[in-house]
Specification:
The structure is a homodimer.
Chain A: H1 7-21, E1 24-25, H2 40-43, E2 52-61, E3 77-86, H3 92-102, E4 112-116, E5 119-121, E6 126-135, E7 138-149, E8 152-164, H4 165-173, H5 189-207, H6 210-229, H7 233-252, H8 258-285, E9 317-325, H9 330-350, E10 357-363, E11 366-374, E12 381-389, H10 390-393, H11 402-411, E13 418-423, E14 426-435, H12 440-454, E15 474-481, E16 484-485, E17 489-490, E18 493-496, E19 498-500, E20 509-511, H13 518-524, H14 531-547, E21 551-553, H15 557-564, E22 570-576, H16 586-597, E23 600-604, E24 610-619, H17 625-651, E25 666-668, E26 672-673, H18 674-691, H19 696-708, H20 716-720, H21 727-735, H22 740-748, H23 763-782, H24 796-809, H25 816-826, H26 833-853, H27 858-868, H28 872-886, H29 891-905, H30 922-935, H31 944-951, H32 955-964, H33 972-987
Helix pairs in contact in A: 6-7, 6-8, 7-8, 14-15, 16-17, 18-19, 18-23, 18-25, 19-22, 19-23, 21-22, 22-23, 23-24, 23-26, 24-26, 24-28, 26-27, 27-28, 29-32, 29-33, 30-32, 30-33
Chain lengths: 1001, 1001
């Protein structure tokens, strides 16, 4: 084995590699910044149309990430190596992988993965899509296609590669701590940086003077503005960078409250946008001088290839479309396949192309459509074309006029084929002709680009100058009809017969002879294109590995889906970790494994206890698995070390001591900090508890739990693993000596956290959860942040649904409306009555969905919700009862009878009172008696059963009444009296159910 | 020819070169700084005992150097490549030259020179000695041995190499402007930096908000102090760097007045010293962890070599000592040779070593001592050793006792050789023996290290861990006695027979067979060790080249001396510059050529006008002279472009508009700014003018000239070329429409600027010059800055001498004392009377020196100065007259007679009045008459001639008086009366001359 590269050797090799490629080698900037992106060589140069390829080192400062040098790979100062390729050269992933090869990293020996990771800095108006790059489980780079910078769309898009130098070098050197990294063959990272790391942490966390730094920020901002007002980009930007770093120090110092944060963000955003605009204006004014350096693009956009398929087959054949992409995010892959499954048959049908079946399968790098038994073309069809009037087409002799001849000629048919059609008093010439079907190949060449363009995704990006959007760049297209290429072009990519092999094998080109041979060719190259097959392989391999240590997989279908869709050729790997980490709460370990690493936890086959193992799934075959395993283990060890550090820090203090820090966590700008919310919950939770009928003891628990409910958000472990909120709060509350009931309520108030999750079992947990969610709903609706479309950043749909679920689970028939009014009085913004209607309706919609999912008929749900939408349990119970009634064979008897009453009065604008003495008809009197009997049993609070039980006996009286009595009598007094009677009958069901919503009404 | 290296390629090659050597490759720092030295990898790591080898790029910001991108190589942002080698590896120059070779610079083809350039930042407590490195006349690197940093002595010393990357790349690429530098094969420096350069200049010079930046400075300082109080080095240092850059911006902005500057300097010095101390303490506390990385030194210190010379010759032989050094500064070389010329014969004599002659010659790299005809050893000598008393050594029988035998044995002589010596009443044994002379080789081996150690230089440095001091590192020693090596060790270097050849040939080792062959061997290797020979060669070559363009050398002996002592093998090179530069004042061009480049200006052979040519002298032979010439011309062109830029800027405004800016130039902290001084001169110059008897018109000129006298100090050209002060003021005054007389006075007030310079011709120039110098003398003496020893930073000796010269030249018998009192009333500090005495005495000493230089006898000068030291012209005139008198053959008649009068009264403490009537002696009456006759002719203002003419006739009366009269009569009244008469005679010469100081008195 050769000597591992030193830190500086890695830098020098990257410089050399990227310089040889054609990058300008640049230097770290003279201001402190959080990432290489801040260097003007990125932030500014990615703007505007000019080409720019650059590579540089950037020591990056993130004060809040400091760990006093106690963490093996997290520091306030770390070193990025940054590359910008503008425009997209067409093969940036290959270039990047080439740079790893230049560092001696052989793809064949490792698990290199592109894992979705997008980048957004709303505070600065930046965003882009891309990946983290994993090397044997370790994130070593960030890879982003910049879509927007400083609020300006990037055009062309830049590719940003950001290497985490320490991570890479740790890997290359096989050391487990950054402090052991060898810098130059002599000194270690410890030698060079450890002392200053501790010092900077001490300064940032303990010493930085808040007042003075605030003043610095203001001075920087003022100078930045003055410089920009004078049109000076770089002096302005230098100060913006100082603003940003100063803010970061203040933030690490815990000095930024919610109001300040929003204000600082707004100020920084303004500055950044201003400098971005100014830069672009400046470059424009200069005539975009770098434009002259635009070199011919390396295959970024290919010209459309040759003519359509020649010599088409005359027999049904198989068609293959393979869309080759850079690694799609899991959700996008799933969505793409689903959409293709719907769109392809639809498009074939619309184009009258016959086929046997369509199969859509895919991996992160390829989405394949296989159409089996595709007929060679459309069938011919006969069409009739209306021509001129008969008397124009034929002269008096019945001979064809010039106009008639012209029509025949234009339609391309012999004159003999014209015929005259008479329609009423009109008579005209018709040409009947056979339109030959188009060839399938021609149609596909035309239709498929449109079809691909119709795919929709939540987040898409641009990459080349055509600015077509897709979730990730589309790099190749295979379109084969039988053994013929169907020529099509999408996003500048022309189709062919060449696909690409596995990444660990260097993505070799694979020529496909025909569509039929596709799956075999893929299988030959170890690629399992079908996700179901991959899932099966993973499951089988992983369970076998787990069994080898007396374990089994910790079931997690979501994780399985995700892993399946992150690989093309899965090979499961069993690793281990030090058993002492099992002293940490297992949820922490499981979260770390799943969330960060996509490892399957392993639990004991019988006890179900967590075992000190992990199962990762490599993209590739079984070669060099030891290297991969070592990598997987190392990165997990670092994660666990991190978690342990946090845990130890967190448990060194009581839970409530974290509360003040909540002031620095924003809930929502107008609704204040999490501390503000926490204080609101202390008021709201007891109110909810009262509404729920909690005991005094329960109320005490509820109040204490509300007080502590958000404290864990300020703990380090929850900052790191947000999904552990509530769980850690509960855990830390116990360790802090809180009542078990309080700890439980803290945990439960987040339940259910996802579909299928447990529900709160205790009533304090219920009350607190209700208060928490109502506060969010009312507050966020009031400030105009109700969900719209697919956007629901505050998860309000989930909150509303959870309210439904927990109230139903606890069988508490609570009408939410009055509680909402109480909430409205407490949130720190004005709440219009209409907002409460909206919230009620919003919850009602979740309730409707939930009831429907329970299998209840839509009309039953409608009927119930029309009256009881704000009372989930009430509605649920009513729907269940109503469902039973409508299932009765004699149900229509009642509905018809009751329906007769309602239909005749429901359009009556006026309300009449029935006076028994006014109507001498016995049927009227009988109905009145029946009504009185029913009324004695029913109130608006009655349930559906009681209502219908009371109504049922009225059926005969109702029917008799309508048989005997003319309601709409010409005597107005009589008529109004009878209407009054029927209105009263209708009134029985008010507030309970609206039977008119039922089918058959 | 291969493609020239790009800017980034140069960086990458330097990284590679120094990494391969063993340096840690580091990155630019995250704060703006003026030089790579500011990076903590230098400023801090050079402190303390730990080894440290590092290389890095540092983009360096010097706001005041900005030229709005209009200058071909001066910018506010430039790029340094910095290397620190700690400790000195013993061959740092060779390592450095190796790095140039790595950039493709072949020494054989260029003129690479190490030109003295020391580095000092009193504001930060840093200093070191070293060189600029010139490549074909262009400064491309700085090379410094750090002696002190942050006020702490460096031990071990670090070698700092600082490459001016832009300069080197411009050279390699053959471009004449930094803006044309190719960065990466695509972009130019213009592309990358020009716009931001202009922006930063605009910001620094025009926009930076003085108030806000002042606040920033205060905030940074406060944070730095807080961090350091907590023991945090790096956070503290980061803020110190910000302080420094902020100060630099404020300074460029013209916002730093004298008081502020002193205050800022003091504050920065305090901070820097504090951080330096803190760092060293911290490292000590950490146990100096890098100490373990100390590698074996590469020949830094060699062990003493073998035993002394064997088999010495028995005939006289030649001895050679060659001290091989890194390039000595010119003055140190001259001084070393002078000292050796004195010390060597002295040491030989002291050691009784006979020789024929000593020749001491040298070049910057070698100082050679040749002793011809050195005898092989000391002669034997006879010595007598006193032994015990005779009665102890011999018994009564006259036989030798045991004691006597012991003495003989101890002295190593036979008992027969003892003899008895009687001295008065003492009698003792004496041993007479012959002490054999020591061998010359043994003596030299012992004495020469002491001799080298006795060399004294104004500025010396340490380099290796022995901390021996020398002007530059001593790298080899040749010591040959005939053909034998004399083994000696100095500063860790052992002597041998190996010397080194010319730098352009790679300094090859040269084995010397014998001392006699030295000069021939050197000549063979093209080295002219003798400076006289080099001077002759340069003169001949240069005059021939000048003649080829109808010119001759602009005579400048100092420059000739300097150039002679900067090379080992001179080859003169004729270059040209664009004739349009001749439109600039020629003094500017000449100054640029001489001061910066050490080029000889060429003037027309007959007219004496400056020609558009230069003559440089290369160290090396005639190969590749075109390359060298091109380099010489390019660098001069850049200098001229700079000068033209300044000139154009300066002449765009009237001279008096520069006056306010003088507020930012310190004269002296307590004495205020140059503006303050300028205002004082407006008062003082007319006062001086009045004392000098100027006319009203002249006074008007004087006053206006005083007003403008210092304005040129704020012009850019004078900031660049300080030696042009006055000249440019005069020039700009003319261009600003000032009277010619005013312009002339501005120029003249600095005259004479050096020995042999012209003197002011106009009386306003004289008055202003006098006022200017008296202000300096009185002010600086008053604040305790009188010159001491060799230290005279304000050139007060020159000022005082100039006062003497100009008053004498204008024949103005001005007594300075009263003028000094007027000056004292105006300077802004209290001036004690004693200070005025000191100043008077100080000027008197210059006057004494000047008079002595004129060939006047010391006693004559003494006699005159005893009475007229504050009146230079008066003293000069008096001395001339007195000299004539003392030259008379009969002079002693007068002196004896007058002397008899004085000697008898000069110790009389009391003054008596002579009453003619009290003494009846005729001789007394005659003397009284003679005195009265003389008195009628003489006053204290009389000149010497008048005094002596008056005294001469008194001689007979005096002699008669002493013959006839007893002065010290026993009658007290009579005695006192006679003493009074003699006192009155003595009084005649008071205020004129003190004849008692004369020889023969």
């Amino acid at each position: 084995m050769t000597k591992p590269l030193s830190f500086q050797e890695v830098v020098m090799r990257l410089d050399r590699y990227w310089a040889d490629y054609g990058c300008l080698v640049w230097q770290p900037y003279s201001e402190k910044m959080g990432a290489g992106t801040g260097n003007p060589a990125t932030t500014l140069r990615v703007l505007g149309p000019e080409p720019w390829n650059v590579a540089y080192v950037e020591p990056s400062y993130r004060p809040a990430d400091g760990r006093y040098a106690k963490n093996p790979n997290r520091m306030q100062l770390f070193t990025q190596y940054q590359v910008i390729l503008k425009p997209d050269p067409g093969n940036p992933q290959e270039l990047y992988l080439g740079s790893l090869e230049a560092l001696g990293i052989n793809m064949r020996e490792h698990d290199v993965r592109f894992v979705e990771d997008n980048w957004e800095s709303p505070a600065l108006g930046h965003w882009g899509l891309g990946w983290e790059v994993w090397l044997d489980g370790q994130e070593i780079s960030q890879y982003t296609y910049f879509q927007q910078c400083g609020g300006l769309a990037t055009d062309p898009v830049s590719v940003e590669l950001t290497y985490g130098l320490e991570r890479i070098v740790m890997y290359l050197q096989g050391v487990r701590s950054v402090w052991d990294v060898n810098w130059d063959g002599v000194h270690t990272y410890r030698d060079i940086y450890m002392r200053s790391e501790i010092e900077q942490c001490t300064y940032n966390f303990q010493l930085a003077d808040v007042e003075r730094l605030g003043q610095m920020y203001n001075l920087y901002e003022a100078e930045a503005k003055a410089a920009m007002a004078r049109g000076l980009v770089i002096p302005g930007y230098d100060y913006i960078l100082r603003c940003s770093h100063t803010f970061n120090v203040l933030d690490a110092r815990g000095a930024i409250g919610v109001t300040e944060r929003a204000s600082y963000f707004g100020r920084m955003r303004d500055l950044t946008r201003q400098v971005a605009r100014l830069y672009v204006e400046q470059r424009k004014e200069m005539g975009f001088p770098f434009a002259k350096y635009q070199t011919s693009r390396r295959g970024a956009v290919s010209a459309p290839s040759g003519p359509a398929v020649s010599a088409p087959s005359d027999r049904p054949s198989t068609f293959l479309l393979e869309i080759g992409t850079e690694e799609l995010p899991v959700a996008d892959l799933t969505s793409a396949l689903e959409q293709l499954r719907a769109l392809v048959p639809e498009a074939l049908a619309a184009n009258r192309l016959g086929f046997d079946s369509v199969r859509v399968i895919g991996t992160p790098r390829r989405q394949a459509v296989l159409v089996y038994g595709l007929l060679p073309g459309q069938p011919d069809r006969t069409v009739e074309v209306q021509g001129p009037p008969a008397k124009v087409a034929f002269d008096a002799d019945g001979s064809l006029t010039r106009a008639g001849q012209g029509f025949a000629q234009k339609q391309g048919i012999p004159v003999e084929a014209l015929r005259v059609v008479t329609d009423g008093d009109r008579s005209y010439v018709v040409a009947t002709k056979t339109e030959p079907g188009q060839l399938a190949g021609d149609l596909l060449a035309e239709e498929l680009p449109k079809l691909i363009a119709r795919l929709r995704f939540p987040k898409t990006m641009r990459w080349n100058e055509l600015n077509v959007t897709f979730p990730r760049p589309l790099r190749w297209l295979v379109a084969l009809l039988g053994d013929q290429v169907v020529p099509l072009v999408f996003a500048g990519v022309s189709s062919g017969r060449t696909t690409r092999g596995l990444r660990p094998l260097g993505s070799p080109d694979i020529e496909l002879a025909s569509a039929d041979g596709y799956l075999a060719a893929m299988a030959d190259r170890q690629i399992a294109v079908d996700g179901a097959e991959r899932r099966r392989q993973i499951g089988a391999q992983a369970e076998a590995l787990a069994a080898s240590v007396d374990g089994r997989l910790f079931a997690d279908p979501d994780l399985m889906d995700e892993v399946t869709n992150m690989v093309e050729r899965p090979t499961a790997v069993l690793g281990s970790f030090e058993p002492e980490y099992l002293d940490l709460p297992h949820e922490v370990l499981i979260t770390a494994m799943k969330k960060h690493q996509r490892y399957f936890p392993v639990i004991h086959a019988t006890s179900g206890d967590l075992l000190p193992h992990l199962i990762g799934v490599r993209n590739g075959d079984g070669q060099n698995l030891d290297v991969v395993r070592q990598g997987y283990e190392d990165v997990l060890r670092a994660r666990f070390a991190d978690a342990k550090f946090f845990y130890d820090q967190d448990t060194a203090r009581p839970l409530d001591s974290f509360l003040p820090r909540l002031d620095t966590l924003t809930f929502q700008e107008k609704l204040g900090s999490m501390l503000d919310k926490s204080k609101r919950l202390e008021k709201l939770a007891p109110i909810a508890g009262q509404a729920l009928g909690l005991s005094q003891a329960e109320q005490a628990v509820t109040t204490r739990a509300a007080h502590l409910s958000k404290a864990d958000l300020a703990t380090q472990l929850v900052v790191e693993f947000t999904s552990l909120q509530g769980f850690m709060g509960c855990h830390y509350a116990r360790l802090s000596g809180e009542d078990e009931a309080v700890a439980t309520a803290i945990f439960e108030h987040y339940l259910p956290r996802f579909a299928g999750d447990a529900l709160p079992e205790t009533r304090p947990g219920l009350a607190l959860g209700l208060a928490n969610r109502l506060d969010s709903l009312v507050g966020l609706f009031a400030v105009g942040l109700a969900p719209s479309g697919s956007s629901d950043p505050y998860h309000l749909r989930r909150d509303a649904l959870s309210i439904v679920q927990i109230l139903i689970a606890h069988r508490i028939p609570l009408s939410l409306r009055s509680l909402l009014a109480e909430v409205a009085a407490i949130v720190p913004v004005p709440v219009a009555g209409q907002v409460l209607d909206e919230v009620t309706g919003f919850i009602g919609e979740r309730l409707r969905g939930w009831l429907r999912e329970k299998g209840l008929r839509y009309d039953v749900v409608d009927a119930v919700l029309a009256e009881r939408a704000d009372n989930p349990y009430g509605a649920y119970r009513a729907a269940g009862q109503l469902a039973a009634w409508v299932a009765r064979e004699d149900w229509m008897d009642l509905l018809n009878a009751y329906g007769r009453c309602i239909r005749i009065v429901r359009d009556q604008p006026q309300q009449f009172a029935f006076q028994p003495g006014l109507d001498a008809e016995p049927a009227t009197a009988a109905l009145w008696d029946a009504l009185r009997a029913a009324r004695a049993q029913v109130t608006p609070d009655s349930d559906v059963d009681r209502l219908l039980i009371a109504l049922w006996p009225m059926i005969p009286a109702i029917n008799r009444f309508f048989d005997d009595v003319l309601v709409m009598h010409q005597d107005l007094a009589l008529r109004e009296n009878r209407l009054g009677l029927l209105q009263a009958i209708w009134g029985l069901s008010r507030g309970i159910v609206d039977l008119s919503r039922l089918e058959g009404f």
